[in-house]
Amino acid sequence: MIKKIQLPLTNKNIAQLKAGDEVLLTGTVYTARDAAHQRMVKKLPLNIKGAVIYHTGPAPAKPGEIIGSCGPTTSARMDAYTLIFLHKGLKAIIGKGRLGDEASKAFKKYQAVYFIAPGGCGALLADKVKQSAVIAYKDLGCEAVYKLEIENFPVIIGIDAKGRSVYR
C-alpha cells in the first residue's frame, strides 16, 4: 500500500515509515547538489529545521513548463554534508543510491529518513512539481537551490528513522 505524506514531515509520520515503504510526497522540498552543499555548509540560505532536501539539479524549463527534467543525483557524494545538516534539524533527503555507513547511521541518530527517487525518470518527476523558484545561488545554474512545491512525488524509504535500510 502506498502511503501519502503531507510535508513538512512530523516525528509521528517519520516514526511510521519503514525501509522499503512506497510513499507519495506532497509539499515543499528544496534542491541542492554538490556546489550548493559546499556553500550551504558555510551559511545556510534557508531554515532547514524539519525540511527536505532533494539531491537534484533541474534542467532548464522549456517555455510553458514549471521546471525541466529533475531526476535524483547520487546522494553519497553529499555524505559529509548530510551529517552536518541532519545535526541542524534536516528531516529528510531525497536522492538515489547507497549512502556511506556514517551517513546511514545518522538517520537513526537524528530520527530522519532517506527517500529514494527513481533514477532515469527525471521527466516524470518534473510533472510532479507544481511550483519552482530559485531561492539561493542563482549563479550556480542548475545547481542553485530551488524551492519546489511537489504533489504525489513517488519515493521509496531507503533508510528509516530506526536505521533500517533497503541496501542491507
Produce a short descriptive summary.
The protein is α/β, with parallel strands linked by helices and 168 residues long. The chain has five helices and seven strands; from the N terminus they run βαβαβαβαβαββ.
What's the number of extended β-strand segments? 7
Span of the ends, CA to CA: 22 Å
The CATH superfamily appears as: Fe-S hydro-lyase, tartrate dehydratase beta-type, catalytic domain
How many discrete structural domains? 1
Could you tell me the radius of gyration in angstroms?
14 Å
What does this structure look like?
- With 168 residues, this protein is an alpha/beta fold.
- The chain has one domain (3-159): fumarase (Alpha-Beta Barrel), CATH 3.20.130.10.
- It has helices spanning 11-15, 34-40, 79-87, 101-109, 122-126; strands at residues 3-6, 22-31, 52-54, 92-95, 113-116, 129-136, 145-159.
- It has a five-stranded mixed β-barrel with strand order 2-3-4-5-7.
- The longest helix is centred in the middle third of the chain and has 9 residues, at 79-87.
- The mean pLDDT is 96.
